[in-house]
């Protein structure tokens, strides 16, 4: 179960993009194209800063890292990146 969670989250985000409901992820992706991307990028930047602060303060690093990963996945879904491209890139770098 744990090793499939990224794929499961990705699948939900794709569904929220393609079949919007009243949710945070659907709403952030359905704004007009420029505003949606800007909002997602703002969240990625905000979460990256929070990871840095969490690391420096030695607290909430896992929690803040998951927020950053989630919003990075949200950006990749919004931009139409196939999840296998991500896993393929990890595999290529792992050699």
Can you offer a commentary on this structure?
This is Phosphoribosyl-ATP pyrophosphatase. The protein is mostly helical. Helix content is 80%, strand content 0%. It is globular, with a radius of gyration of 14 Å. The chain starts with a helix and ends with a helix.
As a percent range, the share of helical residues equals over 70%
Overall radius of gyration: 14 Å
Strand content: under 5%
Secondary-structure element string: HHHHH
Count of distinct strands: 0
The mean pLDDT is 95
Low-confidence stretches: none
Number of helices: 5
Instruction: Give the distance, in angstroms, between the N- and C-terminal Cα atoms.
Output: 25 Å
- Major sheet, described briefly? none
The global form is globular
**What structural class should be given to the helix and strand makeup?**
mainly alpha
Pathway: Amino-acid biosynthesis; L-histidine biosynthesis; L-histidine from 5-phospho-alpha-D-ribose 1-diphosphate: step 2/9
Protein name: Phosphoribosyl-ATP pyrophosphatase
GO molecular function: ATP binding; phosphoribosyl-ATP diphosphatase activity
Pfam families: PRA-PH
Give a quick precis of the structure.
The protein is mostly helical. 80% of the residues lie in helices and 0% in strands.
């Amino acid at each position: 179960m744990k090793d499939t969670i990224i794929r499961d989250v990705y699948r939900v985000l794709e569904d929220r993009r393609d079949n919007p409901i009243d949710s945070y992820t659907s709403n952030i992706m359905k704004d007009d194209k420029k505003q949606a991307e800007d909002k997602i990028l703002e969240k990625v930047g905000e979460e990256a800063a929070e990871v840095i602060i969490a690391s420096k303060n030695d607290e909430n690093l896992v929690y803040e890292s998951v927020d950053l990963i989630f919003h990075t996945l949200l950006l990749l879904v919004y931009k139409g990146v196939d999840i296998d491209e991500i896993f393929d890139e990890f595999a290529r770098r792992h050699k």
